[in-house]
Design brief:
- The chain has a single domain, classed as Aldolase class I (TIM Barrel, Alpha-Beta Barrel).
- By secondary structure, the protein is an alpha/beta fold.
- The protein has an 8-stranded parallel β-sheet with strand order 3-16-15-10-9-8-7-4.
- It has helices at about 80-90, 105-115, 145-155, 175-180, 220-230, 250-255, 265-270, 275-290; strands at about 5-10, 10-15, 20, 40-50, 60-65, 65-70, 95-100, 125, 160-165, 185-190, 195, 200, 205, 210-215, 240, 260-265.
- β5 and β6 form a beta hairpin.
- The two termini are about 25 Å apart.
Length: about 300
Amino acid sequence: MVKNLAVSIAGVVLKNPVMPASGTFGSGRMYSKFVDLSKLGAVAVKGVSMEPWEGNPPHRIAETPSGILNSIGLQNPGVEAWLDSDLPFLRRFDTKIIVNICGHTMDECAAVAQRLKSEPVDMLELNISCPNVSAGGMAFGLSADTVEKVVSAVKKSSMQPLIVKLSPNVTSIADIAKAAEASGADALSLINTVMGMQIDIHKRRPTLSNAIGGLSGPAIRPVAVRMVYQAARAVSIPIIGMGGIVDSDGAIEFLMAGATAVAVGTANFGNPSVMLEIIDGISKFMDENGVSDVNDFKKMME
């Protein structure tokens, strides 16, 4: 059987629907020792801001029984350093490049998009889980009003298709998804981490220096699948599903829920080859179930 694993997101064709989740793969340089990046549908890099960000003080990562809590703080060297070092490295591979952009204010987010306008990157991913300094530290993505404002501002400054990465820490993911689409988003990615906390009972204080962090890993997958399912029925733009994917079965769940592509995050830490295994697993499932086109998965739940 001739199979098609290619998917299209806002006119950008990926050879398969699997990519790393931004924030978990760095620039891809370290993982390239274990994974042929050319076999991935895309590489989504860690958040890039206009100026370097130091991130939060340690402890910044804590293991949980079924995932990881992190409070890294979007540490990155800034857009100029990323363009000088990481982009030339990624251009060596036959894969699509997605740059996750972040900022403390809407103007900062828009400035990164403006700076990348003429650069050879395929798509931008706007992180609206960043703390909006001008709004008292509330994340951009927690209300439809702020989502509309920041997405509109960044869309006006961008040349590449704009993916908007949604936070799960909201009352209605469908309303936030619709606000992002109405403001110009070309695609959505969800979910970002779920807010959580761990206490060291012996030291009698939070494990993380910031007390609260983002929970990722298998524990959040049912939440993520539910939110992708709801968002896919609220908007007409493509969705990249993520949250707790550790194998091809999990990836296929997201595709059936309505995602066009999937992103793998925490699982990469324990198994750098997991994305290649997931691609192979999706292909095997298609063979075993007579599915000729990976895009048909989303029709199975309609």
